[in-house]
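The instructor's notes for this session suggest beginning with a concrete chain rather than abstract definitions. Hand out the sequence below and ask the class to guess, before any prediction is shown, which regions might be ordered.
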Amino acid sequence: MYNPQLETFLQAADAGSFNKAAEQLFITPTAVIKQINLLESTLDVQLFHRTHRGLTLTKAGVSLYKDAKYVIQYCKDSVSRAKNAMQGDTDIIRIGTSPMTPAQALMELWPPIHEICPEIKFQMVPYENNLENARRILANLGQDIDVVVGVFDEVMLNLRRCAGFEISREPLCCAVSIYHPLAAKTRLTIQDLYGENLLLMHRDWSRYVDELRDELWKNHPQVNLVDFDIYSVEIFNRCENSNDVLLCIEPWATVHPLLKVIPVEWNHSIPYGLLHSPEPSPLVRKFLEAIRKTRKI
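After discussion, reveal the predicted structure:
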């Protein structure tokens, strides 16, 4: 459904080398170079700066990189929708899942939900955490994906044009590399963070994070606050590689095997639950009502 050279282009961009891309694609470096040259020739743009140190994307390459990921994912979603239509199964709830939006919390609720609604089935729809997907998926819940498990507040729901169903309040924790001196602790104090770089989402992403930010800014200036744009695997890699501290929640403890999530002695938490369309389908409404009943039992 799309030019397969796009996947080769993405692999080369991620690897930063034609040779490494070839190893991962199980083809020869010459074949990779031919595909990239043909793609550049067809599009009439230069996608890479080629140097003896490796590959870097041009501005055109950066633009195509973002769009190519969207195109490939959209094609995969189209195939899934076509298969679902062929099966004619209308009792499937599609759950978007990624390292930062794991469905484990939902799976823990599943046995009592199944007793109430045995006809409902789940379909996991994997996706990559990035700004483009966050905007597209959350603003269009009910089309390709019905629900996503994650953190939220009123600001975020309004920004992404979706609704939230709270399952729990998750304490804000800190993640550190297992080789970081703080990893020896089972619980942190704010003073333990003095002199550390604390990575947290930018202001106006969540009022709960902003309340913590303001407290640290006012009362604990010894903590160096560093903003970032979105929770993704890249920010977890940055935390591990740079030895910084990352603000996170316990459900993300499995995102990176070399990070340890540690609770902190402060009174800050954030709503955690299901993100869904402001006008959910009858099936999703039935599903949400089943969760309400199980939480009252």
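Then share the key points. The mean pLDDT is 90. The chain has ten helices and twelve strands.
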